[in-house]
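Replying to the earlier thread about multi-chain prediction with a worked example.

Input:
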Amino acid sequence: MIDVSEKFLVNRKIDWHDDAKYGPSILPDPEFQKYSILWFRKSLRSTVVAQVPFIDDFHKRMYDRGENLHASSNLKFPRVSIPYFRIEYSINLWGGTYLFAFDALFNPEILMEKRRGKILGKDGSLIHILKFNPPDENILNISLPKGVMVFDVRNMIKVIDYTSNF
Amino acid sequence: MRHKNRLKSISVYVPIEKVEASLSEIGFLLIGSSTIVANGKFWNKMLYVNKDETISVSEELGDAYPKDPIITICGSKHTISSITDGVKN
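Result:
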């Protein structure tokens, strides 16, 4: 804990990433439960398959029932990935820069919607839709006493996921 | 008179339910929660607010044992001592 009368400058940088770093197989059970209507796995780090057909609205992709979403033999390349914010706080203190960084996963929202398409037909069919919502910014803040200024730098990075083409 | 806020971060070996009860007892409300990943570990981060004071409570997700929620308080000296005493008793 720093408790001095001097003011400190804190820089905050938020990048939005979508680079397949977080796939469903590596999520701990409480987080995986949020997707349990759509996805099935036996245990942590085992293969994840689709329980029902669904559309990943964020990546504009459709998955069929039984489709492999994240293979246990290929954990680094999930076929479904969870977007996230990378938040970096840095503070310059007595000539040194100290970094604190963490990732905040987007929250899933699962709905039933009527969609049309090649597979779903001209009249459309009801299908599960998976949406990803960014986490509330308040929660990502590190609360600091009033005398500290926070400089906010934002970047939006979208990395094209080529793994879906393999 | 408004008190000057201070910063305090503590790790406690008590269940998250006890921490939540202690916070609501002194008027803090849960504003929201998010899943974060720091140092390769998944955490559930919850934010509590009472006027200009904020408290974040982070608990590791998964099978980690023992559970030791981390409480970060940006609040008055009085709030800090009520919480540290509240989670001890």
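The mean pLDDT of chain B is 87.

Feel free to reuse this layout for your own posts.
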